[in-house]
Specification:
single chain; mainly alpha; ABC transporter involved in vitamin B12 uptake, BtuC
Amino acid sequence: MLQSVADVDSLKRRLTFRQLSQYGPIIGLVGLYTGFSFLNERFLTLSNQVNILQQISIIGILAIGVTFPILCAEIDLSIAQVMEVTGVTIATLAVGARLFEDFTVPPFVAIIIGLAFGAAFGSLSGYVTARFGVPSFMTTLAVLFLADGLGLIISGNRPIIGLPSTIIDVGGSSIYGVPSIILVFFLLLVLSQLVLSYTKFGLYIYAIGGDRQAAERMGINATRVRLATIVISGVFAAVAGLVSLGRLGSAVPTMGAGLLLPPIAAVILGGADLFGGSGNMLGTLIGVLILGVLQNGLNLIGISPAGQLVAQGVVLMIAVLANVVGRGSWIRCTHQYPGLFVVLRASLSYRLTIMRLSQRAWTASGLLCDPRAVASIVCTSKLSVSWQWRRHVFVMTRKQYIDHTIATNHIDIHFTP
């Protein structure tokens, strides 16, 4: 009895750590806004808030794209260089300069070619990663050098000016007083969250990020999904290159300098799991805002760029620590109880989790009680799911489960002896 009480107390502490890591980014963002609003009266002005959103939009677009591979337990280190090479490609094609001198295409065609170029880089690294099992860290690092070199060749290592207004307007105009670069950022953010929350593809990403082998046993084509996530990251990098042309008014071969790590840091600051399977676009938005607000606020109160880098490093270290601590109980459960089959994301109303057939008591979704009195979920040898929740019984085959389960909320599951 005493052992059971101790187990419950330990589980409550682990849940508290998990909740802290989940809501920590929001608390941190609110704290930054509160502190800087007291330290500088100009911080909360409308013009400064619009300025913050403009500053974070390019990093935000890159962060949205790289969120997909991170959720799938992959990484993309080539986003900044792919952004550069696609940007200069669009510019040189549109004005007929440098490598494409005397060869001009309509701006719309140049944009399509640039986006396709970004998808091609993503396809190259994604295919090698998914097909041959090479870590995405290495394949995207190779593409980083490849894209960097091609960008210098295409641009002749010189800026391209005189861009058509059609290209400039994508990231440098305003619609009803709102900068177009901000609108593009939020449009992509909403569309990406809808993909993660309401499509099977989004569910597959979370499933593979949580446990790739288990997802493959369920019939999910992990190779295609992993490839697709890195391709998406490449396309978003190309979009970032396009809007950068409007923001800068020209194509600069080094316009991606310093933009590799901030997007990845923003995803982690937003609470995404370093090891995949957990996170969302709202968290990415919060992470990007934390970076932008921190830099803007420190700049307003007169902190030097060196001091700003120190502050960003401290904040990122705290975020990573909270991320790992919050995940600690799940790591312990995975190693201590090999009977665990896979943890998937499910809809808020269903909260489904698949387990191997086991008689161990378990606790899910914060319910600290004997689950046999509340719910039971078992996975048979044929991977059919039988779910009983408060006297409502649903029996689904593997395909029905995958087709009808929508991924929106993370499930915390903890075993107790």
